[in-house]
């Protein structure tokens, strides 16, 4: 009898925003229960409010992988109550950024640990272990990075633009404050260097992925390893499934389709995965200098998600 060999799986690192990245990670985990999965996560959306440090992309991924996320909202926890926010509103406090009663515990825990001198990487590891996830989440940097917008209303912080103004204002430019001086964490650098595949999740290229690319060292690694880098286009038929990716691409002068995404990632991506509805763009995407895979990229059910995971890994 031939002895069964233990299955050897490598490491996959996913450059991650929030919802799209969480779905990609979940699909990759279901596709291969043995692979080591690491998310290097955007922290440009992070904010300090009510004295609390809130990390929306890290928390969205954490809650989604734990199966505890609020599917309707796309952020926060399922089955939340909002008593604290209601009272805060009555007091005249800032209640435009909704923090559910249970979600608040995450921000309290994180903020207290940061005030004790822990890094964001350490606190994230602690939170992830409480949620018993089999995915490692790494903030791209422990240094403060803040994505900001020049808009028709003047400068806005990320969450002022996204939540307070419902991403419904004209954007003239995006800045990633603090990124140039931020240090790529040792853990994030290590995983980017050693993974067999680096996946750029179907997250917003301009506001979820670009802040990660701004951290010194990331572009160098991706450029050097580009044959192992695969990006999934978040635009399907010229539209984003969620959020303002399409509108921002248009306002900032990019083509609002898979070709525009491919041009944005030109030089750091060996393979672009585009949706079947965009199959007619395959040649133009390839002309940016990468291989192209055409498949269903909308992870609307388990079968589609697994198909995408298979393509991303192959
Ligand atoms: N998004 C909203 O549209 N409205 C909110 O009130 C809101 C609160 C919120 C609280 C915690 C959290 O982790 C995320 C939250 N989000 C909210 C989501 C959010 O900030 C954005 O979707 C992301 O930053 C974009 O990736």
Tell me what you see in this structure.
It contains 13 helices and 14 strands. The chain is of the alpha/beta class and 314 residues long. It has a single domain, classed as 3-Layer(aba) Sandwich (Rossmann fold), CATH 3.40.50.10680. It has a seven-stranded parallel β-sheet, sandwiched between helices. A three-stranded antiparallel β-sheet has the order 7-6-8. Helix 1 (19-31) runs parallel beside helix 2 (56-65) and helix 4 packs antiparallel against helix 5. The longest helix has 13 residues, at 19-31. Ligand FO1 binds at residues 17-18, 45, 54, 56-57, 59, 75-76, 97-99, 103, 159, 162-163. Ligand FO1 binds next to helix 2 and helix 6.
How would you summarize this macromolecular structure in one to three sentences?
The protein is of the alpha/beta class and 314 residues long.
Strand residues, percent: 15-25%
The major β-sheet equals:
7 strands, parallel
Class by alpha and beta content: alpha/beta
CATH topology: Rossmann fold
Integer-rounded radius of gyration: 19 Å
Q: H/E series, N to C? A: EHEEEHHHHEEEHEHEHHEEEHHEHEH
In spatial order, strands of the major sheet run: 5-2-1-9-10-13-14
Bound molecules: ligand FO1
Chain-averaged pLDDT:
96
Instruction: Please state the overall shape, judged from the principal axes of the Cα atoms.
Output: globular
CATH homologous superfamily caption: CofD-like domains
